Amino acid sequence: MLAISAAGLPGRLAIAQEPPQPQAQTEAPAPLADAGLDQAVKDIEKAKAKLASLQEAVKQSADNDDALVSLSAQVDELGRHILTTSVNLRPRFDQIKSRLTELGDPPKEGQPPEAQIVTEERNALTAERAQINAVTGDAESLSLATNKLMNEVVETRRRLFAATLLRRTEVSVSVLDDAAKAFVEEVGEFRQALSSWLSFVWKFKRFAMFAAIFMSLATGLIMLSGGYRMFGRYLTRDDGVENPTYISRLSIAFWSTLIRTFALAAVLVTSYIFLNGFNVLRPDIAPVVAALFGAIGLIYFVGRFSNAVFAPREPQWRLVRLSNRGAQSIGACLLAMAIVNALDYLFGSVGEAMGSPLVLTVVRSLIAALIIGLILIAASFGRPMLAHDGDPDAPGRHWPRGMAIILRLLGLGLIVTALTGYVGLARFVATQFIITGAIIVTTYIGLLSGKAISKQESFGDTFIGRFLKSRFNMGPVAIDQVGLGVGLAIYAVALMTGIPLILLLWGFHIQDLQLIAYRLFTEVRLGGISISLLGIFTGILLFAGGYFLTRWVQRWLDSNVMARSHVDLGVRNSVKTGIGYLGVALAAIIGVSAAGIDLSNLALVASALSVGIGFGLQNIVSNFVSGLILLVERPFKVGDHVVSGTAEGIVTRISVRATEIETFRKQSIIVPNSELINAAVGNWTHRNKVGRSEIPISVSYDTDPQKVMDILLELVNEAPFVLRNPEPHVEFLRFGAYSLDFELRFMLADMGEGMNVRNNLRIAILKRFKEEGIEIPLPQSDVIFHRDHVPAPMLEPSSTAADEESVDDTGMTDGGAVRQLRSKAADGNRKG
Description:
832 residues, alpha+beta, Methane Monooxygenase Hydroxylase, Chain G, domain 1, 3-stranded antiparallel sheet, 8% strand, disordered C terminus, transmembrane helix, Small-conductance mechanosensitive channel, transmembrane, MscS_beta-dom_sf
């Protein structure tokens, strides 16, 4: 036993002080508040006594696992209490340290003396600090002692478990003979005890027994009916479905096994609780009834599991590739082994209640291990695998060689282990092979169900997905998100059901699981860091509550105060933004504090950051803060079409330092966030992807304008992605130099489709104009040539009459003989 001396620690830590000398203009110091320190000393003394008693109890209970489980819980509680006592002294210690820093060191020799009240206060604080250090040291020593005792309890339980499994008993003919005699005596004693109990119950506890049975059956029916209402489609198979989906097979196998087993377990557990609570059960009959209920539950669970996985009579619902005969034989083998284990457990409880000798328990376990081993060996010679042609009615194939060898070795190992005297080990292995295997496979089926349901575009095909679509008009994206949540919930149900059951089967107690859960949610240590999952969850809830409260305050203040006061829109937006920042910051501080994170660490980070800014990190910090602003305000998001001073394209990534924009030429441009904050940025898809597009059209002066407008409206109304509200319209822009200019304007549901829509519309317009004879004119210009007068004899013989038209020597036209030449140029590209 670890002895921790408390010498030097008085029962009440009162600090003796000399009465202060009266001084002018000076007040007496306030008495120290030592109530917390005094209580801590008392708690430490109680903890020492408690630790000493627990150490002695652990020594005396070295061969009792149940007592050790209870003691481990008490040791853990004592350790937490000691830690709390030490932590509660920390604030007072910090206060003393801060006050001593303010008072400073005492004056040295040759310096002016300080006031008497200051000296007395320093001495008192120094003495109290020394006492706190002493108490803290005792708490640390006690904490080490409790950890050592906890490790000792764990090691003792491990050795006890190993010794129980590896205990060897001699198996001989005399042992079997003694067991037979003891069995006969046990049967007689149990028959007499059971008949006397039934007579007593029928005479005096008849009403109580029927009431307990009725209440337990009502509980089971409520659970079963609730399960059918929520998961009715996943509890029964539809014989009319010839080829059910993989999700349907997995879901029915998992939920039918889980819900029906839980319903029966509720009936059995509540029956025992009610019978025991109504004093129907005697002390010698109660463990037998509990064992009977446990055996019934075990057999039912294995039967439901075999039917869910192997589906002997419904091959289309089978989860494994087995023939019909193979599925029936494997299911029968599993059920037979479960019955053998259940009967062994039941007879063992009867033997304990009747006080039977140990030899009878050993022989019963020996027989159970031999039977299970023979069943495994017999099953290894079967032909359960599905035939190559896939016909479930055809004779099956043999096991894969490796699987057959494993079954034979396991069965032979059980038989040899039991016959050599290690009956406890053989019984443990046989039980784990059946029950743990069934639980593991059921849990795995649940995980597969969750994975199948959470797969993209899978949940919408289920009954619940179709119901959500029709009832709440949810889109595919929302249905997929719900499916992901449902899949994660199924993961949680499968793991939270399977893992505790497996731990209980492998030697853990309920108290162990409670302690593990408590530590998991309250204290997870990673090196020197302690994390509380419950605290983190509480912090997240508080932050979410503060965030939604902030948003509600913003809306209420904007709509009920500032709107009624006719405040300027810019002021309203500034006030809303400021309240949003303030509320989110407060919610974050509250959430972080509730999560158990020390805010002083954040202060250190902030101070270090400020030092870094002074050394030239302004740009980095500017980009960092700008990135936070972009992530919070979301002026643009991933997938938006933006136009900045340096780039135009689609936003592909937003980080706290820079934003990545992909141009339409597939070039990635990294833009620092500060540039996006300090410069103007155009966002084509800020609120939504709706936008306006235009197509300019020019026709000749000979065309009817109303006809052109009607044709354009007809064509645009037939185009996809064009919104009808606001409806498209055509603007008659101007009388051009050589054409009538129009512009077709329309709204698109998705600006990303603008190029395709405009191209298709241009093709349709050109084709329709050709059919209607509408001309799209080209640019025109008049060119006039002036030529001097030339004598007739000098004219070439080949000159035409038009060439004989001349002008006078002054260059003026003669008789209006001017030839006008018309030239046409190709129309330049115009931006649509």
